From TrEMBL:
UniProt-listed Enzyme Commission number(s): 2.8.1.6
HAMAP family attached to this UniProt entry: BioB
The species this protein was found in: Penicillium canariense
Cellular component per GO, a single term: mitochondrion
Protein's name according to its UniProt entry: biotin synthase
EC class: transferase
UniProt keyword list: 2Fe-2S, 4Fe-4S, Biotin biosynthesis, Iron, Iron-sulfur, Metal-binding, Mitochondrion, S-adenosyl-L-methionine, Transferase, Transit peptide
Binding site for [4Fe-4S] cluster: 96, 100, 103
Pathway(s) of this molecule: Cofactor biosynthesis; biotin biosynthesis; biotin from 7,8-diaminononanoate: step 2/2
Region (Disordered): 364-390
Domain Radical SAM core: 81-310
PROSITE patterns: RADICAL_SAM
Length: 390
């Protein structure tokens, strides 16, 4: 499939803010959409010098305009029909010393989850084969602990898992807590594709959710991963009690890293009884959609992944996320300790809506767009958005 990257602002985008008689004036555009969004629509490459004010302006754009703009960006930088299918396996469950307020695997909370030892290498490789046979092209492995210090045997086993899965032709991602430079290099040498280490939320809100690991420690782990030449996978969790400003803060942090994450997981909190956040309600869907659309615009080449909480979304809500720029999902039997949409269910949805699995090691690079998107009907003026907390 061939795409043509336009060198100027798409006329269809301009027309969508004007009338059917012709494109609007510059003043008319400025009155309806922030200038930074207009610039983002015509960008030819990612930028890492976003200011928080610019990210806020994008995030707070009226949702119908924001999702139309994000869809235009998505179709310029990605094949809009390709969805990366990822499967996540818990290779070591429970017993974690961290106090993350949302997590069932913390030893500090009584969630009924029993701690286990690390899964044998052969068992993990068999799970990866099953995932591949069902269409997954990236296999992710998570272990419940704070960091890799003093875990030489565990690191040795993880490297065997990584090498074995790469031999199957699959991408491999792990999330093992904090790692140092040497551990990152060893994982790179084993063939690791990506390392997940979420920032979870904004720097300001973070201390209300976690006290046993600092925000800067998380950022240092991302530095080690990036310096080793491993793809960074880092996103957040929505619905922790944060405000729109905190979601803007998270987006600003990841979009102003030395380079954008290769993938940005968007998790919606799944409340776990027994944890401090066990009584929270799931975040309203419009906040999830707004975050996905804003992420697509400010990180145009990044894979945006629908992660935890997708199981609670309707099929139509999931498709709305795909149309706004999400292009990856977790699929399979489980997602760590929570339920996950199954392969068969996703296969039916993909066939119905015209999506298909992204190939292994397929990277989203700016490609040339075949044609500009068809403009929607002329729209009336929209009131300025009102920031809200969930």
């Amino acid at each position: 499939m061939s795409f043509t990257l336009p060198r100027a602002l798409p006329r269809s985008f301009l027309r969508s803010y004007g009338t059917v008689q012709g494109p609007p004036s510059a003043a008319a555009i400025a009155s309806r959409v922030p200038g930074v969004l207009v610039e983002a629509i015509s960008a030819t490459a990612p930028r890492t010098n976003w200011t928080r004010e610019e990210v806020s302006a994008v995030y707070n754009t009226p949702l119908n305009q924001l999702t139309y703009a994000s869809a235009a960006v998505h179709r310029r930088f990605h094949d809009p029909s390709a969805i990366q299918m990822c499967t996540l396996m818990n290779i070591k469950t429970g017993g974690c010393s961290e106090d993350c307020s949302y997590c069932a695997q913390s030893s500090r909370y009584d969630t009924g989850l029993k701690a286990t030892k690390m899964s044998p290498v052969d068992d993990v490789l068999e799970k990866a084969r099953i995932a591949k046979s069902n269409g997954s092209t990236r296999f992710c492995m998570g272990a419940a602990w704070r960091d890799m210090r003093g875990r030489k045997t565990s690191l040795k086993n993880v490297k065997q898992m990584v090498s074995g899965i790469r031999d199957m032709g699959m991408e491999v991602c792990v999330t093992l807590g904090m790692i140092d430079q040497n551990q990152a290099k060893e994982l790179k040498e084993a063939g690791l594709t990506a390392y997940n280490h979420n920032l979870d939320t904004s720097r300001e809100f973070y201390p209300t959710i976690i006290t046993t690991r600092s925000y800067d420690e998380r950022l240092r782990t991302l530095d080690h991963v990036r310096d080793a030449g491993i793809n960074v996978c880092s996103g957040g969790i929505l619905g922790l009690g944060e405000s729109d400003s905190d979601r803007v803060g998270l987006l600003h942090t990841v979009s102003s890293l030395p380079s954008h994450p290769e993938s940005f997981p968007v998790n919606a909190l799944v409340p776990i009884p027994g944890t401090p956040l066990g009584d929270r309600k799931m975040i309203p869907f419009d906040r999830v959609l707004r975050t996905i659309a804003a992420a697509r615009i400010i990180m145009p080449a990044t894979i945006v992944r629908l992660a935890a909480g997708r199981i609670a979304m309707s099929e139509e809500q999931q498709v709305a996320c795909f149309q706004a720029g999400a292009n990856a999902v977790f699929t399979g039997e489980k997602m760590l300790t929570t339920e996950c949409n199954g392969w068969g269910e996703d296969r039916v949805m993909f066939e119905k809506w015209g999506y298909y699995p992204m190939k292994s090691f397929e990277r989203p690079e700016p490609k040339e767009a075949k044609a500009a998107p068809t403009p929607p009907p002329s729209q009336p003026e929209t009131a300025a958005p009102v920031a809200a907390s969930s």
